[in-house]
Structures are given as structure tokens and as C-alpha cells.
Amino acid sequence: MREDAARFLAPRHRVRPHSILADAVAAGQRAGLDDLINFSIGDPDITTDQRITRAAMDDALAGHTHYTPPHGDPELVAAIVEAQRADYGVDVEPGQVLVTASACHAMALACMAVLDPDLPPARRREVIVPEPYFNCYDGQIEQAGGVPVHVPTSEADGFQLRPEALEAAITPRTRAIILNTPTNPSGVCWSREAQLVIARVAAEHDLLVLADDIYTAFSYAEPFIPFATLPGMAERTVTVRSFSKNYAMTGWRIGYAMGPAPIIGAMTDINENIVYTAPAPSQRAALAAIRLRHEIMPPIAELYRSRLMAAYREICDTPRMHALEPGGAIYLWVNIADTGLSSAEVMDAMLHQAHVLTIPGPAFGASGEGYLRLAATLDVKRIHEAFARIRRMEIFGG
Questions:
Q1: How far apart are CA 225 and CA 125, in angstroms?
Q2: What EC number(s) has UniProt assigned to this enzyme (predicted)?
Q3: What's the domain count of the chain?
Q4: Statement to judge: residues 274 and 357 lie in one domain
């Protein structure tokens, strides 16, 4: 009897895709360093507000431990609708909302709803992904039968998407554009002008926009603008939101999607065959969070802003290292090209010489070579200690 169970796998899953991010995290684990300062993963180090946790616990004890309707707990859906109206002046119907088990889940469902794995490879639908980009996008697109098309941005342009670069990437097979602002990993807030360019191009070429709005509370350089509020964009935008970062609720795995009713309906149908509905206790936690949003989100956002600026000042004081002033999210995109080493080489040197772990830029697209991503998920004291160690390294002037 053959013992190689890989023979049961579909051909496209027999070779696991290489993950630079996973390699970096594994390297940190293998190092076994008791004094490791870990900037690698964007998981907030603060615990979910106790008011959220207690409300979820009380609701679970009161019986909220059963399936909810497929589109979500009616109270949570109603609260999402109310929040959109109150915060952004947007009217969303309950049938345009789907509660999901994380924003990653919502994006994957959106891709499955609008892409088509039954098409032959030469006709597969394409999704434009500006670089640098959140590393899950490629897998979400490809698993849904689509083709990611990367469009690099540059530091010289403030990592804003050039209109001519966007236009050049469009083909008859283009189906959608992913927009993520504030952006992981660069921390850039896309300007209104850049978003209006995407809106114009989407309308001219009849494209869908997948707006990955994960860091709405962390938009410092520009006021956060929901893409669906731009003229003519509501009918061609699927918005993905999350409670993970805004409320420090990563482990609850809860998010939602909003968009045109036919697309949200298809996503709901697909999801019934995957998890049916998001976990009821997590939905109740999300309900408590959204009701307390004006109390909980601002202190979290201010905490991360102070950390980002502390790290940015340290970067400015470190030879052979620079970055744009952070505009949002919880990350710094650090240019280390002046070291003359690759991103992977610098990451490895920092790990073994300074006991500081980062993620090499190519984890977020090929144009990320020459950069490192730092997540500001550590307190200011640890940030100062990390850079004191880094500056003792020879490649950074020590």
C-alpha cells in the first residue's frame, strides 16, 4: 500500500507555495531567543477591551450559542447598518451585509463570487493588486480561479498608484481592483486623488473594486474615506471590514462585507457550504464593540500612532535606513537598500546580531526588495531598545 497521501491532492495543491513571511516567522522561532524583539506579525499586543469580552460572555450564558441566520446576527447587522449611516452618511440595506469569520474570509468569499475557476487558464479573470500588498491576496484570488496582476508603486510617488500604470495593467480579462487603505505593509493612506483615479478607471472599464478596509481607525495622514461613497462606486464596490485591528480582536475572527445585494447574496450562498455562519459568541462581541466604537477605537488608534512615530524617529536616527513618515495602519515600511544587502540578508543579520525580527519586503511583492516591514505591536520602550541594538550592528554604522 502506498503511504504517500499526497497522491490524493488536487494537482495544484501538491506543491505548497513558498511563503517568505512564514519563513521569517519560522526563523524567529528556530532562533529560540529569550530576548527576541518581534516586529514580525501584526497582532496587537493589547487585549480586547473587557467590556466587549464580558458582553460576549454574558450573551453566551444567555443562550447566544446557536447558529445565527446565514447573513449574520440580526442585531449585529442592524448595528453595522446604523454605524454606516451615522459615521459615513451611507445608506446600506441589511441584505447588503454579510457577517464573516474574519475579513480574510470575506475577501476569499468575494473572490469566489466574482471569479470563475471553470474558465480555461488562458481566459481566467484577472484582479489588479497594487504592490506592496497584503500577502494573502494572491492565494485568495488564485484559489477562486483568478489571476493576480501586480502593479508596483514606488517610494518616489509616496506609494500612490500611478494612473498610467493602472491603465497599462488592464486587459479584456480584468475583473476587479483591490484597494487597501491605510495600507499593509507600507502604512500609506491613499489620497483622495488616487482613489478618484481608481473610481474613474473602474467605471470606464466596468470593473469591480474590492475595498479592503481593515485599518479604518488608523488613518492619520488622510481622513478615512469609504471607497463606496465616491460617486457611482456603491454599485461596483465590495467593502471588507474587520474587528481585528480597530478593536484588538484578532482572535475572535470576525469581520463583515458590504456591497451590491447580488454579490453579497452569492457570497452568503457560498459561505453556507463552508461555515454556514460566523460564530455566535464572536458576533455578540462584535455587536458590543460596534456599540462602543467611539470609546474604544480612539485610544487604540492614538496608542499605535505614538508607537509608529517613535519608531519613525528611531529610523530617521539610524544610518543606512529611512522610511516615509507613517500615514496610517500599524506598520513601517523601512528602506534598507543603502546597506547594499538584500532584504532577506538584512532580516537575517538583524535576527542573529540584534535579536530583532522583521519581515523582508519581498513577502509583499517583488518590488518590496530593499525594504523591511515592522509592525508597531510593541510598546515604546521595546521599540527604543530594538533600535539601540540595531545601531550597534556594523551594517547600520555600529
A1: 28
A2: 2.6.1.-
A3: 2
A4: no
What CATH number corresponds to the domain at position 143? 3.40.640.10
Final residue before a domain boundary, out of 258, 291, 324 = 291
Residue 287 CA to chain centroid, in angstroms?
Answer: 22
* CA dist 263 → 61, 77, 108, 148, 325 (Å): 35, 17, 13, 20, 37
**Cβ neighbours of 65 (radius 10 Å):** 12
Per-residue pLDDT of the chain in tens (398 residues, 90 and over written 9): 456 888 888 888 878 777 877 787 787 788 788 999 999 988 888 999 999 999 999 999 999 999 999 999 999 999 999 999 999 998 999 999 999 999 999 999 999 999 999 999 999 999 999 999 999 999 999 999 999 999 999 999 999 999 999 999 999 999 999 999 999 999 999 999 999 999 999 999 999 999 999 999 999 988 899 999 999 999 999 999 999 999 999 999 999 999 999 999 999 999 999 999 999 999 999 999 999 999 999 999 999 999 999 999 999 999 999 999 999 999 999 999 999 999 999 999 999 999 999 999 999 999 999 999 999 999 999 999 999 999 999 999 87
What is the β-pairing status of strands 356-357 and 331-335?
A: unpaired
CATH of the domain at 387: 3.90.1150.10
108 φ/ψ angles, rounded to the nearest 5 degrees: -60, -40
Q: Would you say residue 320 lies in a domain?
A: yes
Q: Is residue 381 part of a domain?
A: yes
Domain extent, residue 126, equals 64-291
- In this structure, the dihedral spanned by the alpha carbons of residues 363, 368, 372 and 378, taken in order and rounded to 10 degrees, is -60
Name the domain boundary from 291, 307, 334: 291
Q: Whose CA is closest to 333, among 151, 155, 137, 179?
A: 155
Contact 316, 334 (CB under 8 A): no
